[in-house]
């Protein structure tokens, strides 16, 4: 039943979003999986779109379509954009991958950019952010700040992206406290404030004193604030939900990338078949202000951030063992991108069995 | 032992919005009307409750606003299905769509605002009793209201004349009409009661559960409430049992995960729904009993011949 509802909703939104367009401007179009005001993932893309629009001004018209469900509806929505004269189309969810590729084949003259996927084509480029760099930093902070030495992680779906985040966090924590442990709860949803809050309560009741999340609502942050423990924001600065709890947040800043790519598409320098995977140094992600922590922890976090930005430190540098104790990375060895993008194992210290 | 109390509190919080929305829908369905718009009315209640709380500074007024908003939006459903005899399934579904869209629009400027929580009861001495103090004397007002509602509806439906009339309409609206009962008027009242309950359930989400507003924050709870009504075979106390069972399994599985017991998390996440299906099968093994409880004219439009 829910599916029908969403399908109908998408059709309605679609009709509403395509108004009259001026023909002479270059048109950049965005497809969102969620709502523009979700306070997380999609809102970060929306802020990026507005940033690009402000920077490029009158020469460009940007259009966005929100709440597009993954699957056949996405393909229709993307195709509609392609037909309506969009010069470049950004599809901003992992689940739009196959739809993007399918539409791109039919419209070789339109440029496509797909976020967080791994399939490219002559007119499809992918882009992603090295979120694990931020996860490593917040892991280190957790390692210093936790008294119990156990943190709780509210996770969405067991895909490589999320597993990579969990491993990045724990590797950071273990770099300052080698005995650090991590409890993981999967809520099997990207966005359900109530369920995420329940997961946070369950973790806190079982003795964790720091929580972090890879889901999109501020539910867990509110619980942390209420119970007086510390937490990290996700995708967006969530300081208003946890003024006394938020230590920092990993903030997605897509704006400069969008500006750069739209500009490239306009002056003909855009290239297809690329896979961009930028990190802290490129400004595609940023850390919210370090708050609610002692000065020495703050100094450590800032130093780590600087080292990652300068390339001096790669978060996944050995020695790191897998969960079963076998060696993953030897002393001084760093992980290659391929392993990270297909990550399907935990590092040592995760108190959970990875769902396969 | 504090952990046991904490877990029980979490379960009760998770069950309360389901219980309230389901109790409201139970009354609607007992009167023979199927309103599939629970999710939409709930989300409208959530946003109006949150907005009114921020605008007036009082979560109590917010709660009131949510109830009124839920009742008003259900009135729209009433006009379409009762006065104009539109298809109830289609109208209910569009009410959900309307609710989700409208709430997003109303709530746009409130996204990210810090909410105000409805204060929990606190009785010096009593609320601090170990084990049960906070369970009995330290909960939010909507929780107590949910129990009161369940009791009230059970009493009303099966112990009062008005309740009998309502059930009679649900079972056979033509006969009820022939007896001189104003079917449409009573159904309007039932629909609005259902809307008010859904609004209150929404207020619980945005004022108690997670005091914030985000789009689609009901996340399918309205549909679960609808399922609970069938699950409970239209009996109020079974709705209570169902809501708490659902709450217990969904919170229990989170704790099982946090303990790291090694059962696949996908299975644990599906557990509340599996439990619902299993109980449903057990309850409905006797077809005759099930049919006896089902309002016979459920979902059928009624046009009084003049």
Q: Secondary-structure blueprint of this entry?
A:
The complex is a heterodimer of chains A (356) and B (306).
Chain A: H1 2-17, E1 26-31, H2 41-56, E2 60-65, H3 72-83, E3 88-91, H4 97-106, E4 111-115, E5 124-129, H5 131-145, E6 150-155, H6 160-176, E7 181-186, H7 193-205, E8 210-214, H8 219-227, E9 230-235, E10 246-252, H9 255-267, E11 275-278, E12 285-287, H10 295-310, E13 320-321, E14 327-329, H11 337-341, E15 350-351
Parallel strand pairs in A: 1-2, 1-3, 3-4, 4-5, 5-11, 6-7, 6-8, 7-15, 8-9, 9-10
Antiparallel strand pairs in A: 10-12, 13-14
Helix pairs in contact in A: 2-9, 3-4, 5-6, 5-10, 7-8
Chain B: H1 2-30, H2 38-56, H3 59-83, H4 88-107, H5 133-137, H6 141-159, H7 161-171, H8 173-178, H9 183-209, H10 221-231, H11 236-259, H12 265-283, H13 287-293
Helix pairs in contact in B: 1-6, 1-9, 1-10, 1-11, 2-3, 2-4, 2-9, 2-10, 3-4, 3-9, 6-7, 6-11, 10-11, 11-12
Notes on the structure:
The complex is a heterodimer of chains A (356) and B (306). Chain A has 356 residues and is of the alpha/beta class. Helices cover 40% and strands 20% of the residues of chain A. With 306 residues, chain B is mainly α. Chain B has a single domain, classed as ABC transporter involved in vitamin B12 uptake, BtuC, CATH 1.10.3470. Chain B has 13 helices and no strands. Chain B is globular. The model of chain B has no long low-confidence stretch (mean pLDDT 90). Classes of the chains: A alpha/beta (356), B mainly alpha (306). Chain B: InterPro entries: ABC_transp_permease.
């Amino acid at each position: 039943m829910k599916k029908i509802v969403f399908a109908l909703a998408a059709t309605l939104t679609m009709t509403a979003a395509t108004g009259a367009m001026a023909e002479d401007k270059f048109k950049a179009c965005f497809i969102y999986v969620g709502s523009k005001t979700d306070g997380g993932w999609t809102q970060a893309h929306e802020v990026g779109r507005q940033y690009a629009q402000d920077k490029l001004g009158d020469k460009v018209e940007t259009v966005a379509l929100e709440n597009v469900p993954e699957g056949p509806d996405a393909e229709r929505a993307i195709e509609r954009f392609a037909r309506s004269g969009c010069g470049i189309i950004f599809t901003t969810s992992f689940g739009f991958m196959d739809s993007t590729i399918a539409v791109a084949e039919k419209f070789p003259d339109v440029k496509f950019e797909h976020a967080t996927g791994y399939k490219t084509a002559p007119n499809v480029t992918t882009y992603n952010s090295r979120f694990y760099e931020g996860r490593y930093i917040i892991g280190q902070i957790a390692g210093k700040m936790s008294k119990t030495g156990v943190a709780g992680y509210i996770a969405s779906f067991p895909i490589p992206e999320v597993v990579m985040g969990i491993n990045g966090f724990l590797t950071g924590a273990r770099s300052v406290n080698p005995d650090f442990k991590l409890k993981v709860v999967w809520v099997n949803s990207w966005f359900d404030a109530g369920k995420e809050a329940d997961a946070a309560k369950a973790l806190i009741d079982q003795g964790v004193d720091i929580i972090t999340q890879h889901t999109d609502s501020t539910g867990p942050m509110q619980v942390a604030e209420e119970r007086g423990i510390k937490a990290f924001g996700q995708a967006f600065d969530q300081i208003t939900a946890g003024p006394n709890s938020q230590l920092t947040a990993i903030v997605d800043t897509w704006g400069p990338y969008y500006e750069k790519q739209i500009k490239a598409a306009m002056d003909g320098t855009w290239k297809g078949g690329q896979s961009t995977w930028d990190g802290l140094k490129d400004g595609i992600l940023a850390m919210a202000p370090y708050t609610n922590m002692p000065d020495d922890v703050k100094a450590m976090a800032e130093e780590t951030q600087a080292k990652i930005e300068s390339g001096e430190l790669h978060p996944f540098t050995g020695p790191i063992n897998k969960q079963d104790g076998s060696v993953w990375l030897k002393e001084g060895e760093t992980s290659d991108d391929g392993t990270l993008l297909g990550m399907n194992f935990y590092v040592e210290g995760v108190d959970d069995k990875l769902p396969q | 032992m504090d952990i046991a109390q904490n877990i029980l509190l979490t379960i009760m919080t998770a069950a309360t919005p389901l219980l309230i929305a389901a109790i409201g829908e139970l009354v609607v369905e007992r009167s023979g009307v199927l309103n599939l718009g629970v999710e939409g009315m709930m989300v409208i209640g959530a946003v109006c409750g949150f907005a009114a709380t921020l605008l007036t500074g009082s979560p109590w007024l917010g709660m009131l606003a949510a109830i009124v908003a839920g009742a008003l939006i259900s009135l729209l459903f009433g006009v379409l299905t009762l006065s104009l005899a539109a298809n109830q399934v289609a109208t209910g579904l569009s009410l959900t769509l309307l609710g989700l869209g409208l709430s997003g629009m109303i709530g746009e400027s409130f996204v990210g605002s810090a909410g105000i929580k409805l204060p929990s009861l606190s009785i010096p001495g009593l609320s601090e009793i170990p084990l049960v103090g906070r369970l009995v004397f330290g909960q939010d007002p909507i929780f107590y209201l949910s129990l009161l509602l369940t009791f009230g509806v059970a009493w009303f439906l099966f112990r009062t004349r008005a309740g009998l009339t309502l059930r009679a309409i649900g079972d056979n609206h033509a006969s009820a009409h022939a007896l001189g009962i104003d079917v449409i008027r009573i159904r309007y009242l039932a629909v609005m009661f259902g809307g008010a309950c859904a609004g209150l359930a929404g207020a619980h989400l945005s004022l108690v559960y997670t005091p914030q507003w985000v789009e689609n924050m009901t996340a399918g709870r309205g549909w679960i409430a609808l399922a609970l009504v069938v699950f409970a075979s239209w009996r109020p106390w079974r709705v209570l049992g169902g809501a708490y069972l659902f709450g217990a399994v969904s919170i229990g599985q989170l704790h099982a995960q946090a303990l790291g017991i090694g059962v696949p998390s996908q299975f644990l996440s599906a557990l509340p729904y599996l439990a619902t299906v299993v109980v449903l099968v057990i309850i409905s093994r006797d077809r005759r009993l099930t049919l006896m409880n089902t309002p016979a004219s459920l979902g059928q439009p009624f046009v009084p011949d003049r």
